[in-house]
Amino acid sequence: MSPRNGGRISRVTPEGADHDRNIDDKAISKYIPPWTTPYIIGIAGNSGSGKTSISQQIIHMINQPWTILISFDNFYNPLSPEERVLAFSNNFDFDHPNSLDLDLLVATIDKLKHGGRATIPVYSFNLHNRTSKTNIIYGANVIIIEGLYALYDQRLLDMMDLKIYVDTDLDICLARRLTRDILYRGRDLPGAIKQWEKFVKPNAVKFVNPTMKNADLIIPRGLDNSIAIELMINHIKKQLALKSRNHLLHLKQLGVDMKFEVDKYNIKILADTNQVRGINSILFSENTSRSDFIFYMDRMSVLLIEVAQQFFNEYTDEIIPTGNNMSYNGLRMNQDYIAITVMQSGDTFMKSIKKCFADIKLGKLLIQSDSTTGEPQLHFESLPANINEYESKILLFDSQIISGAGAIMAIQVLLDHKVEEDDIILVCYLATEIGIRRIVNVFPKINIVIGKLSSMEPSNMWYNKEGFLDSHWHFRNRFIDTLYYGSG
Amino acid sequence: MAEAKEVDKNVILLPQTNQLIGLYSIIRDQRTKRSDFVFYADRIIRLLVEEGLNQLPVEEAIIKCHGGHEYKGAKFLGKICGVSIVRAGESMEMGLRDCCRSVRIGKILIQRDEETALPKLFYEKLPDDIRDRYIFLLDPMLATGGSAMMAVEVLLSRGVKSEQIFFLNLLAAPEGIKAFHSKYPDVKIITGGIDERLDEDKYIVPGLGDFGDRYYCI
């Protein structure tokens, strides 16, 4: 294809990116990331009953990444000026369900359940108003909703997997509350007692106590009840293990029953030139020193990044005034790039990314496999704000695609941030066929650049004349970042 | 993936992809600032060096991998030496170093003689064992080919065979290629772009201006 048609065609389509190819729609499977099926726990109980301590205990004991605690405290309705005067004189009823914005809470949980970003307001008790600050939460494996009225609204109850009520004697609650209010919140005794008698206790009896009947589990005596807490935690762990098993099983099944032809998809594989074979030889060999490994991995990375830019981008014709005042029928790239690395395997590309782009925006994702089950887990994401608004191509880097699970998760994170599937270019050095199958099965429009692709069965494909198998050491083991960073 | 083509005997042209045309559009543009010129010229140089290295022969080798597997790979053969024509050619040394860390680099200074208007050799510094090496001759522009031919002459006088020489440049004029190959047909020219012609002042058209000035001075 000639890129220069006399300078008259205003747009040049990207070479090789042919999104209109007939991809069998029936073959497309859906990936259900774990954060769209979060395990939701509601914890209710009276003020001073020990809800917060129990929530902290659960977070500590289940030790799951992406566990978030949502407190009702941030969902109070903003007060009107008149109400604020009442509040400052301890005459406003904060313990009545009407003081809460339950609709907003329901909407927030609902958004999180669908893998979207949710904005959590931050409420200030000093101002008795919402502050301009908000917290953005994206994705969760486990959501703990904690508050007086956690088990009050039917819409919330319907979304919960486990409903807990902490039933502590009101006398004990009062004692704890007095200690907390006087010691830590600067109140005086008469004021605290007045509030208890006027608002807290009547509401507790009228509204909070009856929600006990909505609970799956009632824990008397709060955190002191270690047997009940242990039983509860064991139950939660069992449920989470089941969820993680289903996730893994689902991931494994993807890509098994599909017809896979490399050229049916937007996949580019590095040409097998002498240099590429030579570099592969150095990177695979057990006799290579680390300094050589790093050097040649950097060289390989530049080759892959250049290929990634060669395809999948659109250009506009432009007449360029040259250094000697002539004109040249040139091309101007329509989009910029944003680079996202999957830590830490994708970080091996970082040096080469800097080499190829002067001022690129960078983002990071930390996805790690659970050491016992192998289930990929999203631990951390840091993406350029409003990543979808730049009209950029997103280069997603991971040096190795093994099961494909981590890459699928990374792509899903980008899609959840409203990035278009065909704007993503996944760049990897070594990939297994099963991993790539799973990825294109879920995301058929994605662009992929691969250094070396192995096969599931022995085969003699143009891209794999060596007959590399998925089960070979280089493709099955995550060795690149280990050698590159010396972390083995 | 697009691969470099031999467009004429011993003339290898980088694939003219949109991406490469895009890079050239930046460095040709007179409005491009020097920092950008250097950055994007370096990227093109990297592609030229990779293509140059690709021309070198390799030897089949069985590689012992971790975990006991074997891989029928390739071992790089032969030693390389970069020879840059001062000063513009020196801009390409970094790109060569990025691909071959400890590569030896020789220098040749050729300037136009004020009286005769012909290129004249002022200075040369080359490794002693240069005749046993593959030579990457570095000069970003092939206009008339005068200095490049003189450089080849120096190399031949040191016992290098013309088949061992690879001449890497970013932009070449058809007249230059013709003149160069009429004298040294066995030297492989590896270029990123072949322009229309030379103008009466012997500048490449449409060209990019004076490469050395834009890389080092302006």
From TrEMBL, chain A:
Q: Which organism is it from?
A: Spathaspora passalidarum (strain NRRL Y-27907 / 11-Y1)
The family database entries (InterPro entries) matched by this protein are listed as:
P-loop_NTPase (IPR027417), PRK/URK (IPR006083), PRTase-like (IPR029057), PRTase_dom (IPR000836), Uridine_kinase-like (IPR000764)
Q: Which residues form the Phosphoribulokinase/uridine kinase domain?
A: 40-227
Pfam families assigned: PRK, UPRTase
Task: Quote the catalytic activity from the record.
Answer: uridine + ATP = UMP + ADP + H(+); cytidine + ATP = CMP + ADP + H(+)
Using the record's annotation, list all stretches that form the Phosphoribosyltransferase domain. Answer: 272-453
GO terms classed as biological process = CTP salvage; UMP salvage
Judged by the first EC level, this protein's enzyme class is transferase
Q: What is its EC number?
A: 2.7.1.48
Q: What are the start and end residues of every segment in region (Disordered)?
A: 1-21
What are the coiled-coil residue ranges?
A: none
Q: In which pathway does it act?
A: Pyrimidine metabolism; UMP biosynthesis via salvage pathway; UMP from uridine: step 1/1; Pyrimidine metabolism; CTP biosynthesis via salvage pathway; CTP from cytidine: step 1/3
Q: What is this protein called?
A: Uridine kinase
The UniProt family comment states: Belongs to the uridine kinase family.
GO terms, molecular function: ATP binding; cytidine kinase activity; uridine kinase activity
Keyword annotations from UniProtKB, A to Z: ATP-binding, Kinase, Nucleotide-binding, Transferase
From TrEMBL, chain B:
Q: Which cofactor does it need?
A: Mg(2+)
GO BP terms in the entry: pyrimidine-containing compound salvage
Which EC class does it fall in? Answer: transferase
State its Enzyme Commission number(s). Answer: 2.4.2.9
Q: Which GO terms of the molecular function aspect are on file?
A: GTP binding; uracil phosphoribosyltransferase activity
CDD domains, alphabetized: PRTases_typeI
- List keywords of the entry alphabetically: Allosteric enzyme, Glycosyltransferase, GTP-binding, Nucleotide-binding, Transferase
Where do the Phosphoribosyltransferase domain residues begin and end?
15-216
Query: Which pathway is this protein engaged in?
Result: Pyrimidine metabolism; UMP biosynthesis via salvage pathway; UMP from uracil: step 1/1
Q: Which Pfam families match?
A: UPRTase (PF14681)
Task: Please give the SUPFAM superfamilies that the UniProt record associates with this protein.
Answer: PRTase-like (SSF53271)
Tell whether Transferase is among the UniProt keywords.
yes
> Which InterPro entries does the protein's record reference?
PRTase-like (IPR029057), PRTase_dom (IPR000836)
Family according to the record: Belongs to the UPRTase family.
- From the Swiss-Prot or TrEMBL record, give the protein name: uracil phosphoribosyltransferase
Organism listed in the record: Spathaspora passalidarum (strain NRRL Y-27907 / 11-Y1)
